[in-house]
């Protein structure tokens, strides 16, 4: 069976057999299939989709392409969280620390940025010395000792996904439901966690721009997880405008630390508490969601969550002093204030355009091997529904001159002022 035939089969809208999917994944892992053929099949899947059975088979083959972590040595119910990606979405960082501070072990395997969306690992690497690549033994040992670790997938966990993930980013195939579902669930099932909470984004800055597509993806993820014996639920949340007020790697670590000091933006904290409450209930550390929220708030106000985040930083080789001294992280040399061209109310603040603006400044990757500028980004001073006067500051562009004109043009398209608007609903739906 030639790879060319498999590509043609999917191109023509046919259902791939288990044998065909197995050959594809095996070839990816063994590097017997060239990248251009892998990219061709990814595009065919993006355009033609997959049946439920194909999707399940793809997930299983990707999971079985490597090892499955054994986390049984870690006491308690291990709970992880995953987001389908957004702009300004630093939720995993304060969330993991707060949940771990409440006694739920959080062995979190995260990813890097895809297109205009940021990656948790990229943000953490803005902290001097922070290591996201741990051995399996070190990962398990750290969660045993402090209840928390945030790392990239090791080479032995779903290695097929690592190869495919990088190509999706640069072949415009990120938004495929089968590819997203198999990528997320192959890693999460293989990571050995007991329960999983998934944040599925919908809106202008999400890969699932319509609520119907977001619901379809959420149901696919939950179904795959439950078939694998994983306690699994999903929340559909809004990504029509950036989450929080800061977009960019260092900037989002700063906002994470502000959040852990009880100074986080309201939308960020609402989503953190919504997901965190579900994690505490799944982890049997709260009998219901209301009690779980109270426990999360106590973890913040007592300082335990901030201390837990610092403990994780230092355990993974990072400089814990950043908790108090943000200047230790990389910062842009220049700041440009972007001002309103007229008076009115912010009626549009497109998350994808803001994300692209941060990317062209150097804060994200346009190619898989692009180096990041951790200090650049966008700081939002107004959001949808906020009134603004002509000449008033709407946002601050943190830049090192590269890409400034392109970023400004993108922001011109992202922002619209009108007569009236209200902030979008943050939590759309919960899927159990």
TrEMBL record:
PROSITE patterns hit by this protein: THYMID_PHOSPHORYLASE
Any one biological process term the GO annotation gives: pyrimidine nucleoside metabolic process
InterPro entries, sorted: Glycosyl_Trfase_fam3 (IPR000312), Glycosyl_Trfase_fam3_N_dom (IPR017459), Glycosyl_Trfase_fam3_N_dom_sf (IPR036320), Nuc_phospho_transferase (IPR035902), PYNP-like_C_sf (IPR036566), PYNP_C (IPR013102), Pyrmidine_PPas_bac/euk (IPR018090), Pyrmidine_PPase_CS (IPR017872)
Reaction(s) catalysed by this chain's protein: 2'-deoxyuridine + phosphate = 2-deoxy-alpha-D-ribose 1-phosphate + uracil; uridine + phosphate = alpha-D-ribose 1-phosphate + uracil; thymidine + phosphate = 2-deoxy-alpha-D-ribose 1-phosphate + thymine
Keyword annotations of the record: Glycosyltransferase, Transferase
One GO location term (cellular component): cytosol
Keyword set includes Glycosyltransferase: yes
Necessary cofactors: K(+)
Residues of the Pyrimidine nucleoside phosphorylase C-terminal domain: 345-418
GO molecular function: 1,4-alpha-oligoglucan phosphorylase activity; deoxyuridine phosphorylase activity; thymidine phosphorylase activity; uridine phosphorylase activity
Top-level taxonomic group: Bacteria
EC number(s) stated in the UniProt entry for this protein: 2.4.2.2
Function description: Catalyzes phosphorolysis of the pyrimidine nucleosides uridine, thymidine and 2'-deoxyuridine with the formation of the corresponding pyrimidine base and ribose-1-phosphate.
Family of the protein in this entry: Belongs to the thymidine/pyrimidine-nucleoside phosphorylase family.
Record text on subunit structure and interactions: Homodimer.
NCBIfam families named among the record's database cross-references: PRK05820.1, PRK06078.1, Y_phosphoryl
Name of the molecule in the record: Pyrimidine-nucleoside phosphorylase
Native species: Limosilactobacillus fermentum (Lactobacillus fermentum)
Encoding gene per record: deoA
């Amino acid at each position: 069976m030639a790879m060319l035939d498999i590509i043609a089969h999917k191109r023509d809208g046919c259902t791939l057999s288990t044998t065909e999917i197995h050959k594809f994944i095996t070839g990816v892992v063994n590097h017997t299939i060239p990248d251009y053929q892998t990219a061709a099949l990814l595009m065919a899947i993006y355009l033609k989709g997959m049946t439920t059975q194909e999707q399940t088979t793809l997930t299983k083959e990707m999971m079985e392409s490597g090892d499955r972590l054994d986390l049984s040595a870690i006491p308690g119910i291990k709970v992880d969280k995953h987001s389908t990606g957004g702009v300004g979405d630093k939720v995993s960082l304060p969330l993991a620390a707060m949940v771990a501070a409440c006694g739920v072990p959080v062995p979190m395997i995260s990813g890097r940025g895809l297109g205009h969306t940021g990656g948790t690992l990229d943000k953490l690497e803005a902290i001097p010395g922070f290591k996201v690549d741990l051995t399996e033994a070190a990962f398990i040992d750290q969660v045993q000792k402090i209840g928390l670790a945030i790392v990239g997938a090791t080479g032995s966990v779903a290695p097929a996904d690592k190869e495919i993930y990088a190509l999706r980013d640069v072949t415009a195939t990120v938004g495929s439901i089968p590819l997203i579902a198999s990528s997320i669930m192959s890693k999460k099932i293989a990571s050995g966690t007991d329960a999983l909470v998934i944040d599925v984004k919908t809106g202008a800055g999400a890969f699932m721009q319509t609520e119907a597509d977001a619901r379809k993806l959420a149901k696919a993820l939950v179904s795959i997880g439950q078939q694998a014996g994983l306690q699994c639920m999903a929340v559909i949340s809004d990504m029509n405008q950036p989450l929080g007020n800061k977009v960019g790697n260092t900037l989002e670590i700063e906002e994470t630390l502000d959040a852990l000091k009880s100074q986080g933006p309201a939308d960020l904290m609402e989503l953190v508490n919504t997901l965190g409450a579900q994690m505490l209930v799944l982890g049997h550390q709260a009998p219901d969601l209301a009690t779980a929220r109270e426990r999360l708030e106590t973890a913040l106000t007592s300082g335990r969550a901030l201390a837990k985040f610092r403990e994780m930083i230092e355990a993974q080789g990072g400089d814990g002093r950043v908790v108090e001294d943000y200047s230790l992280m990389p910062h842009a040399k220049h700041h440009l204030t972007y001002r309103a061209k007229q008076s009115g109310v912010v009626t549009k603040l497109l998350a994808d355009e803001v994300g692209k603006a941060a990317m062209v400044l150097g804060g994200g990757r346009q190619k898989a091997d692009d180096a990041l500028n951790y200090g650049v980004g966008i700081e939002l001073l107004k959001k949808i529904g906020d009134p603004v006067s002509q000449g008033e500051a709407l946002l601050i562009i943190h830049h090192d001159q590269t890409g400034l004109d392109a970023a400004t043009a993108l922001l011109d398209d992202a922002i619209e002022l009108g007569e009236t608007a209200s902030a979008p609903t943050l939590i759309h739906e919960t899927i159990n």
